[in-house]
Design brief:
The strands form 2 sheets. A 4-stranded antiparallel beta sheet has the order 1-2-3-4. A 3-stranded antiparallel beta sheet has the order 5-6-7. The chain has 1 helix and 7 strands, in the order βββββββα. The longest helix is centred in the last third of the chain and has 17 residues, at about 110-125. By secondary structure, the protein is mainly β. It has one helix at about 110-125; strands at about 45, 50-55, 60-65, 65-70, 75-80, 90-95, 100-105.
Amino acid sequence: MTEQPPPPPVPGFGPPPPPYPPVAPAYAPVSPHPAPAPAGPEFLAVDKRNAVVVDVSGVVFELSGHTLEFRWPEIRGVHYRASPDGKALMVAVVHMDGRFYECVVEAKPRARLQEWFPQLAWVLGHYRPMG
């Protein structure tokens, strides 16, 4: 038996290089489901059209189907009081750039307004102890 010479090299790039061993990513993979925010006290006041939520992430106003979200780092201050007729809670957020946003939530029955004040004061004091 006679040995044949190897075939001549094929023009082009040649055979593929050997595979690299798998390398772990240098970053943590991003989950499609965000991790839940840490639990903390919450305040919620709701009527037929409007709502105010204060929680660990900040303040949210729901105004006739439109949502305004304010994160704590962008809030300069939060103020609240009863409406002049004593039938509603008025909450205002002052943005860091000086803009002012307000949401009014009717308290039915009217006694609910007196329940909301201490709850709101406690939750705001938890997240904004200096005011």
